[in-house]
Amino acid sequence: MSIALRELLRRPGRFAPVVVAMSLLVVLLVVLGGFLDGLSLSQTGVVRAHEGRLLVVAADADLALDRSRLPDEARAAVAEVDGVADVGRLSQVTTTARPDGGELVDVVLVGHDLGLDAVPAPVGPGTAHVDERLGAIAGAPADAPPAVGPQDACCEAVGSVLSDVSAGAPSVWVGHDTWLELAASIDPTGAPTTQVLVVEPAAGSDLGALADDVRAALAGVVEVDVATADEVVAADEVVAQQSGTFQGIIGVTFLVTLLVVALFFVLLTIERVKLYAVLKAIGGRSPDLLAGLAAQAVVIALVALAAGGLLSAGLVALVPPDLPVVVVPGRLAILAGATVATAVVGSLLTLRRILRVDPAAAIG
Amino acid sequence: MFLAIAELRRARGRFALLGAAVGLLVLLLLFFQAVAGALTGGLTGAYEQARADVWVYDDQARLNPQGSVLDEGAVDAVADVAGVAAASPVTFTVFDVDGEPSAVLATDAGSPALPRAVDGVLEQGTAVAGTSAFVEGDAADLLALPGVDLDVAATADGATFAILPTYFAPRDAVATATSERAGRDVPLPTSAIAVAVADGEDATAVAAAISDAVDGVEAVDRATAIEGLPGAGTITRSFGILYVLLYVVVAIVTGVFFLILTVQKRDALVLLRAVGAERGDVVRPVLVQVVVVVGVAVLVGTGAAVGLLSAAREVFGAGLDVGTILTSAGAILVLGLVAGLASLRRVLRAEPVEAVADGGL
User: Fold this and answer.
1) Second label for B23, Cα 20 to 30 Å away, from A150, A337, B94, B219?
2) Are residues A143 and A254 located together in one domain of the fold?
3) Can you tell me the ipTM of this complex?
């Protein structure tokens, strides 16, 4: 193995081509992973912001928040349930905003009552917490009033929220009563009403039992599903379909990486058949030779990961902020591990050629 | 030529590995194009299939029909602009149909917003369904809206909006359903105006004239309207990044392979030159190998992509058109040849005299 590693140090140029090819494949994998996570996270931010709470959704909406419509009396009925610390309304609608001095951009207007870790409670009528990216996307100052909806009707920006809580577009969070007024002007045909109730459980409450109690309390009012944020995200068919497609594409990209590495090591092995024969003639075993190739593959993969990672960081920085690319450390770790494993497997596809090397060939 | 083919036969494994890598990249590229095409088609099909040459929105709507609300007099004002043959109001709304959210486009009989394939079919009490293989759910025979049932009189393939099952319905029926759903009288607003321009008129010029003549509206030609629909531009640009990366990877992988192969064959190339082979004699085999390996890979990758997409037809619809396949295949073949230039440079640098120089053959 030490011979293999010393060869890498002594003749790095020989390995440069495969490093370049693998680096580009790493860039492709990182960008694909970025789209996979970006699409998923950007569409589910409003729901994920409510982790640890229960979401009450009309049963005929199939856990799709924007299709759910709940009657006004549902909130009071849920508030009476034992184990409910607080209950608030949550609704969203897609519209446009023109932050003062900027371009018109698509936004998701979210109405809510309860404060969250990521979004403070509404300050009052006519105020909003605005996605931190909105100013950059619209080309306006970060604290510019968002001017939401067809009449530029709202609001004074009183704070920003992380873009992590977006829902397919930058989000603007307002009090739910303000949302109802704005939604009526945004979609006059929609007759806006509360879409979802958010239940803050009392300390120590069992979420499963609480969900059953909430469902029972609403039995005479409206038929509902009560779910956690994770369950609502998992039920999103669009997100599931996108994830499946991108994971398939990432899988094929790994197959390409495997073939490229295998191709390179096959060429390298052909070139070194005589040297391997000499090594075998003086006592080297096939497993030692294969271990050397695997070690070289690991180093090549690590260098490609470093170079590809840097290139990806540059590329992602150049991507316009309205494109859904989010690089998640956990995803990077998985891609890195899989890239190293793929490189090792690719290098070991030379197994047959290594085993066929005859020590006698060393003396002609 | 003989040498090129002989080497391809002798080192089948090596060339097969390169061919498989390039073939998979072709498969990925075509698959991306099919996914992007199906996604944008599901979003914009209703516009692509419509007879309308120009679309008019509220100038605050950012070309988003679902965010646009036009004043009542806008339709008449647009109809009066020179070059406009027909102008018809359209309301974009969403109803639950058979438990699935469905886009409902409320318009008039004879509206330019109706799909060309079913122009004139929209009568009172009927609806037209826009279908797409990519959009889940089959078109219902009966469009059951709140308080109104409409017979689906015709279907228009590909005429979908917002990746939802789509229906074109008469405005009075949708107005009734909207009020029924709201539980009170709700006026049906106009989201957009579909405009057919008069024969011989330029759609872009008519759109500009409408924007100038009518306050508070933004009029654009069909192509601009399609590009401006929410999500369409994002999909195009996102997949554009992936296409570029894939083309670069194809070029690098092909270039690197032939470069290594050339370096390994250097002694043989010097020998060939020493026994009288011209530069062209040693360059041609490399070019032949690039064309054969990349060409076969493109054919196999394309075949696999077409097969896969046919098997998943219910997800991706028609998938790919011949023009897209030919353009992509041609681009990859050209890129393969360009990538092979580095190895050609090495081949051309092999001098006959090296065979007898110190350290030569």
Assistant:
1) A337
2) no
3) 0.72
